[in-house]
Write a structure and sequence with these properties.
Layout (H helix, E strand, L loop, with lengths): L1 H70 L5 H25 L1
Length: 102
């Protein structure tokens, strides 16, 4: 009788061990997938950070040029009108293009 219950307990122990090893393997795979996904997102965010830095440099340079043009006074009033007119035309072009898409 004892041999039979020992065999049953041993079999049950092996089954539970196999079940646990499968769970551990799934968790290990999941952790590896999370690590890969995290590395991809970090790489993407680093690229976005570099893009924003370059955009910031471009915009600050443009603002500096506009501020210099404004500071020069009356000599550039005509140029300033052209720039403002260009921005207004560009705005309406974008507005028309995006409204026709939607």
């Amino acid at each position: 009788m004892e041999g039979c219950s020992e065999d049953a307990l041993d079999h049950q122990n092996r089954m539970m061990t196999e079940f646990l090893s499968q769970k551990v393997l799934r968790l290990k795979t999941l952790a590896s997938n999370i690590e890969t996904e995290t590395k991809d997102h970090v790489r993407l965010l680093d690229g976005l950070n570099n893009d924003f830095d370059s955009g910031h440099g471009f915009l600050s340079g443009s603002m500096n040029r506009i501020n210099k043009m404004i500071a020069r006074g009356k000599s550039n009033r005509k140029m300033m009108c052209y720039v403002i007119f260009g921005f207004v035309v560009l705005f309406f072009c974008y507005y028309y293009a995006f409204s026709s898409i939607v």
